[in-house]
Amino acid sequence: MLTINQEPSQIVELPVIAVDGIVRLIDPDMAILDEKTLKDIAFAMNGEFLYLKVRATYTPVEQQLCTHKECFRPAVTNTLVCGDH
Questions:
Q1: Which H or E run contains 42?
Q2: pTM score, two decimals?
């Protein structure tokens, strides 16, 4: 059971490309690509495709976002959609 000051967390793996010792997070538009394609992109950048392990802490969101496909606008209060959806 969690106390008031504890936040649930777990270890997650984020896909990254490391080039010359600099770790770059994968752009959200590239996150839909398969692992082979990401490895090819990393190779073209003279880098390496890796998974970075980090601890993720989950907190309540300050503003709900629209759940319509590929829409990230703020949702109307007490709904899961924006004004256009």
A1: helix 35-44
A2: 0.58
